[in-house]
């Protein structure tokens, strides 16, 4: 009898130990769902709620996978069909059908995604998440956080942060009192790596009567090269900002300022805040902001004469849309009799999805934007239908093949500096291929076209228009 009790107690202890161990290892929960019969999952921390809804309000000029907007207890949110986003076949919709919605929250933005079927919440051990194979699944591997086997089923864990907020923030748009203009890069040698930067010219050689520095003391030009190397590595690591012959002139100038500001012992960028402070003067005028009249006038002046009936414009890196709407207004001012068509593209899905819903501050109505705004019944201002219809917001990575028509204007401020050297070459070559004979390309105010592409230049104030030679 005692032996039986001992066995029973031992069994109970073992079961309790197993339960405790299992509870201890469940440190990650995910909401599972299906698309086209395959199992997927999203981190539960990004899921606000699960809902069923239909009859979404259609939004003109929206992306194909944006079904419309929906009133979620007073909050208007965009609704995206995750199946269309990933090119999965979608059954024909009926008017009264309720869709399965996951209400997601990513970086303080709320939106709904439509899926085929929502399954359940599954708890797993985070260490059990395996990296996806490069040939895995139907979805671009960069959108996959990993794969997990649970309850004898294999789940693809989607990285919603990468899907819906891929673009890095570009600072607050503030400008220095006297902005630094880089010298044209036409005669600059291409940069192959971080060690090949030319340092600023050293001061005059010391008089022969002065003692030579000790052999171990670094020369000023060596220090400059070292500083640039440190900064280059820090910018790439913290802000995905790539130094090349497109922006090296500004970077070298800024490094000299930075060394004086921080002291030679604190030149290296220690964190993201340091990198953001370093780059603050880099971003072009009115970045991520509504344009001032002075800036709008400068853009208008640099636009060339063009008698075409239709003006085609490519605006990669359009962000939240303030730049694109501003550009469209200036284009209409410059070419009043032409039909304007702006292809505005970005890899920030939330930004391009919400761009058509952007609100316009009332104080803009009394300024240069006034002729292009209209007042809604509720008193809010929005852009006129003509301006709205002139813009097509698209989710697109400019590094990939782009089926655009030949363009009259390319407006690509600061975007090249957020691409690696190989991508910069690819995108600039695409610019050149898509430009009409009389077209212009406008880059960021502290960027310059590499000399290897043989662009012509026309400067108006801080803006440079690049033309085909």
The assigned structural class equals alpha/beta
Straight-line N-to-C gap:
100 Å
Rg from alpha-carbon coordinates: 28 Å
**Total number of helical segments?**
11
If strands are numbered along the chain, what order do they take across the biggest sheet?
A: 15-12-11-16-17-19-18
What's the rounded overall pLDDT mean? 81
- Enumerate the spans where pLDDT stays under 50 for 5 or more consecutive residues: 1-11, 166-210
Order of helices and strands: HEEEEEHEEEEEHHHHHEHEHEEHEEHEEE
Helix content: 25-40%
Strand content: 25-35%
The count of β-strands is 19
Biggest sheet descriptor: 7 strands, mixed
What is the molecular shape? globular
């Amino acid at each position: 009898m005692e032996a039986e009790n001992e066995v029973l107690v031992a069994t109970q202890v073992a079961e309790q130990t197993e339960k405790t161990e299992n509870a201890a290892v469940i440190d990650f929960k995910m909401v599972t769902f299906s698309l086209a019969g395959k199992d997927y999952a999203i981190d539960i921390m990004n899921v606000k709620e699960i809902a069923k809804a239909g009859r979404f309000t259609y939004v003109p000029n929206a992306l194909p996978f944006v079904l419309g907007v929906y009133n979620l207890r007073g909050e208007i949110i965009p609704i995206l069909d995750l199946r269309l986003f990933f090119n999965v076949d979608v059954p024909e919709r009926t008017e009264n059908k309720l869709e399965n919605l996951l209400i997601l929250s990513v970086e303080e933005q709320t939106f709904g995604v439509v899926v085929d079927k929502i399954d359940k919440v599954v708890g797993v051990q985070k260490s059990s998440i395996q990296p996806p194979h490069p040939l895995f699944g139907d979805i671009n591997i960069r959108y996959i956080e990993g794969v997990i086997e649970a309850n004898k089923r294999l789940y693809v864990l989607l990285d919603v942060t990468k899907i819906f907020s891929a673009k890095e923030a570009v600072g607050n748009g503030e400008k220095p009192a006297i902005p630094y203009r880089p010298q044209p890069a036409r005669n600059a040698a291409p940069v192959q790596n971080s060690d090949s930067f030319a340092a600023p010219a050293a001061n005059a050689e010391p008089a022969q009567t002065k003692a030579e520095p000790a052999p171990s003391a670094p020369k000023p030009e060596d220090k400059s090269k070292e500083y640039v190397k440190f900064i280059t590595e820090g910018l790439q690591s913290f802000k995905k900002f790539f130094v090349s012959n497109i922006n090296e002139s500004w970077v070298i100038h800024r490094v000299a300022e930075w060394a004086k500001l921080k002291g030679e012992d604190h030149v290296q960028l220690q964190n993201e805040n340091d990198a953001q402070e370093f780059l603050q003067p880099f971003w072009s005028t009115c970045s991520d902001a509504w344009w001032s009249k002075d800036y709008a006038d400068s853009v208008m002046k640099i636009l060339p004469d063009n008698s075409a009936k239709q003006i085609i414009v490519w605006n990669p890196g359009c962000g939240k849309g303030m730049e694109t709407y501003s550009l469209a207004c200036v284009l209409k001012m410059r070419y009043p009799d032409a039909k304007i068509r702006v292809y505005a593209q970005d890899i920030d899905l939330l930004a391009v999805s919400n761009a058509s819903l952007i609100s316009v501050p009332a104080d803009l109505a009394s300024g240069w934007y006034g002729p292009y705004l209209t007042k809604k019944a509720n008193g809010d201002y929005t852009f006129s239908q003509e301006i709205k219809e002139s813009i097509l917001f698209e989710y697109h990575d400019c590094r990939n093949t782009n089926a655009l028509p030949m363009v009259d204007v390319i407006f690509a401020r600061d975007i090249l500096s957020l691409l690696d050297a190989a991508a910069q070459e690819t995108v600039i070559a695409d610019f050149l291929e898509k430009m009409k004979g009389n077209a212009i390309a406008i880059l960021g105010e502290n960027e310059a076209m590499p000399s290897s592409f043989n662009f012509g230049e026309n400067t108006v104030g801080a803006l440079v228009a690049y033309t085909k030679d």
